[in-house]
Structure formats: structure tokens, C-alpha cells
Fold Protein-tyrosine phosphatase.
Amino acid sequence: MTKILNLEGTFNTRDIGGIKNKEGKTVKYGKMIRSDALGKLTDSDVKFLEDYGVKTVVDFRGIDEVIKAPDKKIGGVREINLSPNAPIAAVASGNIIDDQKKIDALLKEAATEDGRNSLRKRTDEMAEQMKELVNTEYANKQYTQFLNLLSDESNLGILHHCKGGKDRTGFGAMITLFALDVSEEEVKKDYMLTKKMMEFRNEKRMSEYRKYTDNDTVLEYLSGLMSTKEMYYDAAIKEMKRMAGSIDDYLEQYLHLTREKKQKIKENFLSEN
């Protein structure tokens, strides 16, 4: 089963090892960690990740997010930025420094009936963001590069993250597990585990938002962005199948996962039992 890594400076860090694929093979531990941002790692966290064998960190955040909250350095690690350009996810994962500006803009929108209706309709717009991670050419290029990294064993263990480790990171984990022939049901379980991992953090963030506003429409919109919902996962799956007919064909046609590359990834990640 998935191993939770209880670091002091993160809230959503876990090793995807232990997940079984449709052939009964198991993902090895120590090959891939998924996480939220690494800017608050403690010295003991850094040592833990060094000892755990992390060799590559892939940061899916945009350049503005990286500048505002750079990752802590992990010794001997190669750092790669592969931002898929996901503006909704960036808003969802904003920090306390940006809260006033963000909420002021939302309150301005919520001041009119049309604006309130718009926000209500967009409560679950993260589903649209997930679809864009699937269907935009720029995102396809970033996630293609990500899969390319997985096919080279020298890059492993690999840690990939965004701000909250939910959507941009979640999609990275999804395509990795699908490349390993893990079932849709098991991949969804991994995606939805983030809901439990982020429960305390989301409650804290909503308390912070309430310091700025008591506007129910704005608060509901912000809560929707932070939530981990099956419909977000389902939106990505549905879009893959719409575009290519099946998930395997999507990976091959849009993320250039050739049979040879897929076989190499499976050799790197899977054990026999």
C-alpha cells in the first residue's frame, strides 16, 4: 500500500510504491514520491529525503510560484521545472501573502448578481483545469518530458510536486500509474487519498480566508478549488477517452509513450510480486 512520509514541513507527501497493477505486479518503493511544495522542509526532512534516495525533483509550479516560495535544496538532487501552465491550480494553491489580493478580486466579482452567478457556476472549475492538463499542447509537452524522465533509471528516485500536491502533481501520478498498467479504480484511490492528506490544511486555509471575508459565495468558490473531488479525476479520464478512445491510446498519441518507453518504465518501477 502507499507509504505516507510524515515530514515536518509538508502535509501531502507519499511514496506511490505498494500499488498493484492489473498483472498483479507491485510498484516498488523508493522510485517515486508525490508531494506538496518543499519550501518549508526542515533540516531533518532534507536529510530524510537524501537518505531515502531522491535523485530528481520535478516542480510543476509556475515560475511566479517558484520565485515566491523556492524549494529547500536537497543535496545531490537534480531540479527540473515542468510547469504545465495551470492558472486555476495556481490560484487554488496560493499562499497567505497573496490572500488579500485574491479575495479582493473575488469580492469585486461577487458584488454583482452576474458575478455571483459566475462564481457559483465555477465552484467546480477545477474539473476544467484537469481537462486542460489533458488536452492542451503545452501541458502535453511538459508531461511527455516527465514520462521521459521515468524511463531513465538514473533519474530515480524521483519526487514530483506542485504547491498542494493535488492536481498538477495528481495528474503526474495518474499518468505514471496508467503507464504501469494500474487500473482506473486504483489510480482513483491514489488521487482521492489527497482528500484525507489535505483535510487539516484545508480547514486551516478556510479559517485564514474567513479572516478576510464572510462572503459565502467567495468562500464556497475557494473551498471548491482546494477540494479533492472524484469529479475532477473523472473529468481528466473522460477527456483522455474523448481525445483518443482509451487511456493507453491517449498516452501513446499525446504523451508519446511508445511501447519501448512504457516497457522501460515498467522495468524501472515494477516488482514481480
Q: What stands out?
A: The chain has a mean pLDDT of 92. Strands lie at 3-4, 14-15, 26-27, 32-35, 56-59, 78-81, 158-161, 270-271.
